[in-house]
Q: What sequence folds into this?
């Protein structure tokens, strides 16, 4: 089936018509063409002595072919060419050429049929005008008849072809614009879905970050408080002075934990109106452990300068901790300082939980472009007191996420001596 481009998306017409009004229009045009061909056919057959009835019947059949113009425009034009010597089918030829030019028929076929139609009209015009001049006996110049025949041929061929080409091109342009609009709508919908997915991912990252912060703030302090309370129970009756000292330490650690929680919650409230993710980078989400979206974190927090105090708290809880610093350097970024501090803090917390009383060594190395930290504890001593601290298994996961988020390296695992080692290296930039 060959379409003219007039049909749009709305359907519901009979047979090959997609719209009812298109079918009505073609039936009306076919009726007009049939009447015109019947009159002209009667005149032609009467002139050649075949009787007007045959001409009327032939004209009705030929003119009705126009109803097929949308389905077979080439056939309609060929029928118009076939009856043109009988001076029939003016409406048939005009509408047929227009439909052919506006359809999706290859342009070379349109050009050939239009040329044939023009040539046929030219020959018929030359013959009819020559006969008319001979019958009238009027004096005319030699070029009058050819010139008038050319004008008639152009007038019956060029307008419908040019109009059809224009209408077809315009309809194809409108269809292209409609498809482009649909494509843009689909793209916008996909972008909206991706934006929602990224927002959901960012909210999940923010929840995980908050969970890490809560874990780091609470777990270490509470672990030390539990260790001190265990020691307090052991010496409460034997050594009241040590018990009082341990009780004071428990109170100090509880107050410190509450202070850090208040600071963190205050920063979260202050940044509640800030988008979760900074300038969203146009990079695709890649399947690597280090996420590129930088989440909003508080600028204030613990730093490497507070490691001495952190180690001192563990010593006060009865842990034998050796602390050493190699290299020189200071003034790292807030995220680097806070991450390094949290790694050491969580490693000491795990040592309190799983190796109470074991000797622990904390090393901090400041190097060119990076800072490294390592916390290693030995095996727990025999007969050591188990503080029975709960463990959710999220400490190492949180440390790894923190380090990888800054593009660092994190390694944790048991040692050959039966202890446990946590190592991390963070890039500090220039």
A:
């Amino acid at each position: 089936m060959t379409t003219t481009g007039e049909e749009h998306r709305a359907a519901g017409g009979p047979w090959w018509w997609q719209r009812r009004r298109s079918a009505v229009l073609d039936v009306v045009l076919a009726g007009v063409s049939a009447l015109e061909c019947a009159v002209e056919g009667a005149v032609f057959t009467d002139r050649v002595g075949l009787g007007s009835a045959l001409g009327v019947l032939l004209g009705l059949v030929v003119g009705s072919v126009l109803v097929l113009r949308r389905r077979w425009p080439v056939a309609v034009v060929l029928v118009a060419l076939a009856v043109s010597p009988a001076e029939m089918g003016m409406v048939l030829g005009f509408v047929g050429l227009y439909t052919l030019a506006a359809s999706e028929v290859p342009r070379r076929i349109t050009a050939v049929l239009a040329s044939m139609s023009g040539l046929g009209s030219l020959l018929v015009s030359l013959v009819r005008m020559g006969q008319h001049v001979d019958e009238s006996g009027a004096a005319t110049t030699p070029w009058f008849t050819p010139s008038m025949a050319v004008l008639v041929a152009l007038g019956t061929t060029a307008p419908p072809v040019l109009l059809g080409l224009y209408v077809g091109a315009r309809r194809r342009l409108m269809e292209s614009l409609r498809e482009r609009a649909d494509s843009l709508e689909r793209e916008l919908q996909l972008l909206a879905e991706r934006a929602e997915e990224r927002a959901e991912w960012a909210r999940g990252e923010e929840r995980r970050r908050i969970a890490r912060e809560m874990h780091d703030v609470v777990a270490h302090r509470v672990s030390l408080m539990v260790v001190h309370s265990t020691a307090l129970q052991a010496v409460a009756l034997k050594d009241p002075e040590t018990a009082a000292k341990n009780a004071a330490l428990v109170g100090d650690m509880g107050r410190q934990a509450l202070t850090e929680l208040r600071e963190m919650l205050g920063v979260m409230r202050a940044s509640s109106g800030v988008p979760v993710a900074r300038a969203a980078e146009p990079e695709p989400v890649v399947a690597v452990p280090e996420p590129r979206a930088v989440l909003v974190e508080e600028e204030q927090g613990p730093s490497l300068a507070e490691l001495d105090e952190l180690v001192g708290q563990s010593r006060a809880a009865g842990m034998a901790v050796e602390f050493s610093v190699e290299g020189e350097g200071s003034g790292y970024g807030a995220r680097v300082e806070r991450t390094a501090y949290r790694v050491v803090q969580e490693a000491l917390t795990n040592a309190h939980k799983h190796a109470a009383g074991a000797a622990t060594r904390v090393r901090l190395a400041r190097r060119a472009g990076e800072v490294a930290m390592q916390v290693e504890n030995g095996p727990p001593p025999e007969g050591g007191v188990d503080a029975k601290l709960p463990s959710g298994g999220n400490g190492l996961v949180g440390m790894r996420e923190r380090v990888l988020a800054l593009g660092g390296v994190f390694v944790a695992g048991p040692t050959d001596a039966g202890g446990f080692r946590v190592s991390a290296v963070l890039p500090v930039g220039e």
